[in-house]
Amino acid sequence: TASSPEGARDFLVPSRLHPGKFYALPQAPQQFKQLIMVAGFDRYFQIAPCFRDEDPRADRSPTDFYQLDVEMSFVEQEDVFKAIQPVIQGLFEEFGKGRPVEADWPRIPYAESMLKYGSDKPDLRNPIEMQVVSDHFRGSGFAIFAKLLEQDGTEIRAIPAPTGGSRKFADRMNAFAQKEGLPGMGYIFWRQGEDGQTEAAGPIAKNIGPERTEAIRRQLGLGEGDAAFFLGGKPEAFEAVAGRARNEIGRELGLTVEDQFKFAWIVDFPMYEKTDEGKIDFSHNPFSMPQGGLEALNGDPLAVKGFQYDLACNGYELVSGAIRNHKPEIMFKAFELAGYPASEVEKRFGGMVKAFRFGAPPHGGCAAGIDRIVMLLADEQNIREVIMFPMNQRAEDLMMGAPSEPANDQLRDLRLRVLPKE
Fold first, then answer.
1. Which of 8, 320, 397 is nearest to 387 (CA)?
2. Beta bridge partners of 364
3. pLDDT value of residue 181
4. Which of 160, 301, 334, 400 is 20 to 30 A distant from 17 in Cα terms?
5. Angstrom distances, CA of residue 318 to CA of 55, 250, 346
6. What is the mean pLDDT of the chain?
7. 3-state class of 138 per DSSP?
């Protein structure tokens, strides 16, 4: 197919018949399944290979993977949920080796998920929920946090640690934070004092005093033998580390309940985000319908939410989908905000734009990652263990010797020249 901005790098394939032009291996059948809806096929599913030139992770193949793609016309978000839940739930009930599968899948807004869990794919087997505790540190004797809160957009979050109330455990978590590149994590732990009453201990407790410490304890619902850890700054800078710390605390203290599957729909994703260069770009799927339609795109782009949703299970994203943007005028405006002029949209997505002009039904769908589902069912920690011919961490197939250098006559056929490494 043709290259398009779908969130990952394309694999490009040079065309022999059209020198200087390249095909792209499809990152997903996204555009094609939307065109199928316009053509009048109102329901579609396919087990589809997808190709993305991505950096490898334990739960992601660096080259290709398979997904169960689904698309439907005249549906809303709720209809997609009702269609896909029996499929996923049935799979996990049948092949999950008897582990409990909760049937009640909560809907968690993206912003809430990031605040409470530091992730948009939370592991809900862990009961810990983070909370904002900024007010307890404003103007306090703990100068690091007090000064931090004088800056716009900053806050302090607490990670409760029930049963973690010892200096030994606090030291372990400090070591974890240092491995993550932080100088450490502030903490308070509560113990029985010499007078038999609950007292707070740790450097933060000494600096902010008993009244503020007690207010934090009450807010977090903690008691003797418990602890709380603190991270501060602009949320986007520390959320990911806070999420990993939450997972570590849950594991270390035995709070995370193993041998079960807990699902949640993450909804209300932001349509846009600011890049490191300060530009506005799509934060998720560019083909999603913005909540509020065209009118919503006339305000602050960073406040626009999309009809986008993911299904999380045990800390992994298993399904991603959206209600699609099926109106050309909304599509042009959505891409314009991300820096793509109308001419670029016509060039990159001409087929979809032309089709939509003939009248497209409202439609939406999702895709479930098959390799990742199998990885969870098989109790594996690395996706390579469930792929027949996996690539290594450098995206190489060592058995077949791929990628390989092309022969000179192949390069001549394609009118290509390989530049030497700088």
1. 397
2. 72, 323
3. 86
4. 400
5. 18, 22, 32
6. 94
7. coil
